[in-house]
Amino acid sequence: MRLFLDKFSTRIGKRVDGVSRETRQRLTAYSWPGNVRELENILERAVILATGPTLEIGPDILGEPVSATAAGPRLALEDVERNHILNVLGQTGWVIDGPKGAATLLSLHPNTLRSRLKMLGIERASHDRS
Q1: pLDDT tens figures, 15-71
Q2: What is the model's pTM?
Q3: DSSP letters along the chain, please?
Q4: SS (H, E, C) 91-115
Q5: Pairing state of beta strands 54-55 and 18-19?
Q6: How far apart are CA 18 and CA 66, in angstroms?
Q7: 111 falls in which pLDDT band (50, 70, 90)?
Q8: I need a labelling partner for 89 at 20 to 30 A (CA). Which of 43, 80, 83, 96 fits?
Q9: Measured between alpha carbons, how far is 90 from 15 in angstroms, rounded to an integer?
C-alpha cells in the first residue's frame, strides 16, 4: 500500500504521511473483487480527494464490505503487492533496472525491488515461462 501512496502522492503533489485506523480497517475488511487494480484505483482516488496528510477512505469511495464467503477468498495485502509486482515485471520482460525497468515503473530503487522480490519469494524461473 505504501508503494501506491508514495507513487500517487508524488504524481499528484500531495503529502500523505499515513492512513487512518478506520481506513486500514475498511481496506482489510473489503473483499477486493478487482484485486490489485481496484486497490490502485481506490488509493489514487483517495489521494486526489485527500484534504490532509492522513489518508481517509470512506464508504462512499470503497463501498460496503462483502463477506469473504460471498466474494470468494480474500487476498492479503502481501498477495496484492506480489501480484502487482509480477504484473509490472511481466510488462517489462523482467527488466529491473533502467528507465523502462520495473523499479522505475514502481517508483522504487532497483535494490529495494530486489529485496521485495526476495521477501515475497518471487523468482523469475518460477513465474516467467516464455
Answers
A1: 888 888 988 888 888 877 767 888 888 888 888 888 888 888 877 777 654 444 444
A2: 0.47
A3: -HHHHHHHHHHHT----EE-HHHHHHHHHS--TTHHHHHHHHHHHHHHH--SSEE---HHHH-----HHHH-PPPPHHHHHHHHHHHHHHHTTT--SSTTSHHHHTT--HHHHHHHHHHHT--HHHH---
A4: HCCCCCCCCCCHHHHCCCCHHHHHH
A5: parallel
A6: 25
A7: very high
A8: 43
A9: 30
Residue 126 cell numbers, joined: 518460477
Supply 121's cell numbers: 519469494
Cell numbers standing for residue 86: 509480477
Amino acid identity of 62?
L
Q: Are 53 and 15 in contact (CB under 8 A)?
A: yes
Nearest to 45 by CA among 60, 29, 31: 60
